[in-house]
Structure formats: structure tokens, C-alpha cells
Prior knowledge:
The complex is a heterodimer of chains A (211) and B (389). Chain A has helices spanning 7-14, 64-77, 82-86, 90-96, 105-125, 137-144, 185-197; strands spanning 27-32, 39-46, 53-61, 148-149, 154-155, 162-168, 171-176, 204-209. Chain A has 211 residues and is α+β, with helices and mostly antiparallel strands. The longest helix of chain A has 21 residues, at 105-125. Chain A is flat, with a radius of gyration of 17 Å. Chain B is an alpha/beta fold and 389 residues long. In chain B, the strands form three sheets. A seven-stranded mixed beta sheet of chain B has the order 2-8-7-6-5-3-4, sandwiched between helices. In chain B, strands 9-10-13-12 form a four-stranded antiparallel beta sheet. Chain B has a two-stranded parallel sheet with strand order 1-11. In chain B, strand 3, helix 4 and strand 4 (121-125) form a beta-alpha-beta unit. In chain B, helix 2 (42-62) runs parallel beside helix 8, helix 9 runs parallel beside helix 13 and helix 10 (307-316) packs across helix 13 (362-381). Chain B starts with 5 loop residues before the first strand and ends in an 8-residue tail after the last helix. The mean pLDDT of chain B is 94. Chain B: This is Cysteine desulfurase.
Amino acid sequence: MNFPYSKEVLEHFKNPHNVGKMEDPDGKGLEGSAACGDMVAVYLKVNPDSLVIEDISFESYGCASNIATASIITDLAKGKTLDEAKKITWKQASEALGGLPAVKAHCSVLAVEGLRSAIRDYEEKHGMVVEKEPTDEEVVRRRLKHVMNPIKGLDIIRTELVMKIVVNEGNIRVVLDLPSHHQFAAAIKEDIIEKLEALWDVESVTVDFIS
Amino acid sequence: MFDKTVYLDNAASTRLDERVLEAMNPYFFDTYAVATSEFGYSMGIDAKEGLERSRKVIASALGANANEVVFTSGSTESSNMAIKGVLSALKGKKDDHIIVSRMEDFSVLNTAKMLEKQGYKVDFISVDSEGIVDLEMLKAAITPQTALVSIQHANQEIGTLQDIKAIADICKEKEVLLHTDATHSFTRVPLDVDQIPVDLVTVSAHTIHGPRGVGALYIREGTPINKWMDGGFQEFDRRAGIENIPGAVGFATAVELVTPEENEQLKAMRDRIIERVQAEISSVTLNGSATSRLPQNANLTFHYVEGESITLHLDMMGFAVSTGSACFSRSLEASHVILGIGGDHERAHGSLRFSFGRFNTMEDADSIIDALKEVVVNLRAISPLSADE
């Protein structure tokens, strides 16, 4: 048998931990990507005094790496404080899974975002978030660190795929160092648009290619 | 675990039939010379005979004359040759416009897109929700400058059969050349060029238990077409390169082995999947036409679940099938075919293609349905989507 995933990924995929919808969660995050089509929902029960995640569960409409990452990330977050859980990275999840295929990174990063957005949801509901930050180039850059470059399995900022970012009164233009007919051009473009459109003060997103 | 793989991805490629290998063998070890002219040495003359006998078999399966069939390295080459060869021959006459459907295989679609980048005008004809080409749109798109129309006979993914007679009649009336990619329908669904005025037809061996790397292009006599690879004078000076005689012989044998009874058996397995899945699993959509359909293809969307997750579970249970999900594809893009019939990402995401071949049995069809019932229920149990949302 020759499967495209590590033994750990297959095990979590076959028997995922912490699955299912939670009734009356204290925090809830739903992240989805139109490019890949995957969705992850993460639910939290948080101890209000210690801010420790006492229970966590997820639901996934996604591929194997998405399901396996959601399973491991919920394992990693359980019992941690919100601040500790926030710092769990995709890389840690990937390592705990014995590695994920580079091309699948963008599906699995969703699980990490699902956890962070559930934490943010809790913090917003409990008045722990200061006021909304206006979108500037730095915010866009930070957000684009969550868009994966499937060629390398690392984000598009770190792999220097982003040549230019222009932010003009809620209108964002991103230029990529990639020809428009590249195999992954359409998928990356959709992913970028989805990540940036979600920002509260963004009106339009344009993605251009070098040729 | 399981003893053997139940292979239901015959549209991608098929297992070679032993009888094909047997027929090819002498052309590797005994009659291995290149095809020579009738004034060459004996082994070369024998090789040439093997090649020409094979050509007759392919021609006869299409209702064509032998001199209208050119062997190639497969469908991709055949379709490239048809489109680029015709455009080159019509250069300066009718050369700036071609028409293709949105459902074509990449060998036609990406050829058309590349030509568009080079300055050709390309119209992409839409299809309806079953994948059937809009004939009115086709009629309206043809102009005096149209060099070629290329519309497939059967779809590779959802199995929809086009009314190729109606398409050919339109093209004939408007005096435009028509190419059709018949890779998936060849020998499974009749296509007689004597009855249907199509000018170029792409066919391939590997979809009918023949060898990979061999196909053919039917070119109606009198069709303007140039060589698109330069080299020797093989194949009536239309396709340069040493002939793949073992491949041609294997292709011909594969064609001869297909019977009407076999096609009926494929159809019965296809119908079993379509009927049982729709009856026994909720929230399932049939992709493609219920009536105008390849006998060997079933394509169904299992809503609220993702295709790669289903195929991986099935793989672990011993079944090989493919999906139109973006997560499964090399480009991470959802199937252009499912999107082309008006489906959204979700429909492509949960779509599975079951394609049958000679070595499948009704038991295979029943066992994958049983496996699907388990897998789909389990994946839906962890999905945030459901019928009531």
C-alpha cells in the first residue's frame, strides 16, 4: 500500500479526535476557503477564571489533511490557556502529524485558523479585544501569511511570491511573481481574495500576475 | 484488509488485456524492423503489413478508409495535430477563429487557450446542466472566418454524449471543419464517419485495454492539414517519426476485442451504481445526462462531503475511483466540467467518477456501493454542512 500521507495523518483521518458540534460553545470559529472549498468549524469551552480551554471540538468539510490537522490541533489546544493555544502553529501541527504534503498545506492551515478564530470569538464576546485595526499594508502582509504557496508548502509571503501590495482606501491590489497561466495561479488568487475580503474595512481585492 | 483492488477508474486508463500483449509480442521480438517500402527486406515488409492491417481495423471501426487513419502517440497528440495542423494549412485563408466547447479534455481546451494567447480568436461554447452543447450558440458563433470547430463526442468526466450528428450537420451546412475527440466513446458508442460528416476524429488505445502511448487521428480525405512535427515521411507524410508498430497492432487488437455484449455489461454496472446509490444514500446528485451517456461512466456528487476524503477512505478499503474535487487535482482547481454544467465548487468537491472496464464485475459495483454507504455517513457525521442548513 502506498498512501500519499504519513501514518499519523492516516490514523487521525481514520479516527479523528474531538469531532462533532458542541452545544452552547463559549467560542466558535468557522473558516473556509473557496479555492480549496474546505471548511472547518472549531468550538471551545473555556474556564472563565483560568482562561483554560476545557473542551474543544471540530467539524470538517474537507480533505484528509484538513481533517487530520483539525484533529491534532484540537488535541494540542485542549488544556492550554487561550494565550498558549493562540501560539500553536501550522508547523507544530504538521510536525506532530509526521509531516504534510507541501501541496496540501493550504487545506490544513485552515484548521489552525479555525482555532484562532474561535479564540478571537471568545475574546470579542468577553470584551478582551481592543478596537478594530484599520487595514494597511502590514495587516495585508500578515493576512497573506495564511495563504499557502502550494509549490513550496510555505506561505506566499515567506516564499516571496508577493511582489507588491497597494492599499488605497479599502481597495487592495496584490501583484504576484507568477505567470497568469501557472498551474496554481487560479487557486492562489481565489485564496488571496477570500482572505482579504474578510477584513472589515476592505471594499475590493485585485490580484495581478507578472504576465 | 482486502485481497485485490477494485479498479473503477477506467476512464483514466485501463489494465492491458493479455490478448493485446500477445498480439504485440512478435513485433518486439521477431518482426522488430521498421516498416519499409515494398522494395525493402522481408522483415520490414512484414512489419509494414502488421502496421497496415492494424490501420484497416481502426479505419473499419470508424467506417473510414485506411488511408484516412494516422497513428499517433495518443489522444493528446491527435487533438493537437488536428487543431494545429488544420490552422496551419488554412493560414491566410480562414485562420483566425476556432470554436471549442467548455467541456473538452485539456488536450483540446489548453491547445485552444494557447492559440488564444497567440492571437487567435477562440469561442468557448457553453453546455446545459447535463453537459449538452448549446447548438444555437454554436450556430451563432460560426463566422466566415471560422477555421475549425472542436467538440468532443463523449465527456471524460461526466460521460455526456453529444449529438454529434446534429453538430456535424451544422458545421457541414456552414462549411466549417469539425474535429471530435472520441477518446472515451470509441468502440463503446457507434461513430460512423460515413453517416456523420465529421472531418477529424481523435481515438486512443489505452481507454479500451490497449497499450498506452498509441492513438490515431482520422482525417477525412481532402481535409487541409499540415504536419506539425517535422521529420521523416511516415504515415502518408503526415506524422513524422518511426512508427510504433507494436502499439498499432495492440491498438487494433484492443478494438477487435470490444463486443456489443461487453458494452451492455458495462451499462448494467453503470446503471446499478446510479440506481442503488440514489436509492440508498441521501443528498446525491447525478452529474451528466441520465439518457445520453457513455455506457461505462457514472458520476455522482455526494453533498456535504469532500471527494478526496471519500477516495482516501475507499482506497484504504481497496477501491480506486477519482473525484472532481480541487483537493485531488494537480492544479488544486475544481473540475472545469462540473463547473461548466453550472455546478458550484461544492458540487465538484463531492463528485466521484466511477468508470467501468472489461475486468469489472457486478460484484465490484455492489461492493463499492456498500463501502460508500459507510464512508459517506461517517464523513457527513463530522461535516459542518448538512441538508437542513
